[in-house]
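debug: dumping io for the single-chain case to check the tokenizer round-trip. Nothing else runs in this session.
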Amino acid sequence: MEITIDASAGIRQFRSVTSPVATSGDADAPLVVAARDGDRAAFGALYTRYSRVVHGLLLARVPAPEVADLVQDVFLQAMRRLHTLREPAAFGGWLAMIARNRATDFFRRSKDTEELPEELPGRSGAAAHRAEALAVLEVVKSLPEAYRETLILRLVEGMTGPEIAKRTGLTAASVRVNLHRGMKQLREKLGLAAPPEDASEDLRDGSTGHE
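debug: decoded output
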């Protein structure tokens, strides 16, 4: 996973290297039905469509180095349990539940680990940049669950507001509220000034100002 911060933007933007998000008009149900009947290509299409969602939901809960492996676990569980999904159109919410449960299970099984000190000798350049990015990520993860999930899907996974709503089952209004309140709390925690109103609107609507 690759995480970057645009230092000139105040906070900045994380990016994770995952599969692109499919267009929001595509229906899941036909793919789910085909995948349930053993069509591996159909399940691969679902993976492409939802990998960023699963990645973001896990990143909101577990240490970043663990996320990639857990994403694979979630999709493996989904493939094995797809026959239990009664309503194909509900695939997104069902998959999100599996991801959240897998994160909970991760902490139940994890052994105590020793954290590295924040200041490491000889750290500079890319390593320091990554450390700063991870520090901001930890601040995001300290926010209420609804805010941190939505912010990570927006800022890390690069999803638009409408995409987040469609993939997670949230209403568009809920996504806008979560992004607005989440960014407000994040900026307060980081000691950053509030952005101009038009920039705030861009974030809620799905544009970044960098694209």
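debug: round-trip ok. The domain at 1-107+125-211 is CATH 1.10.1740.10 (Rna Polymerase Sigma Factor; Chain: A).
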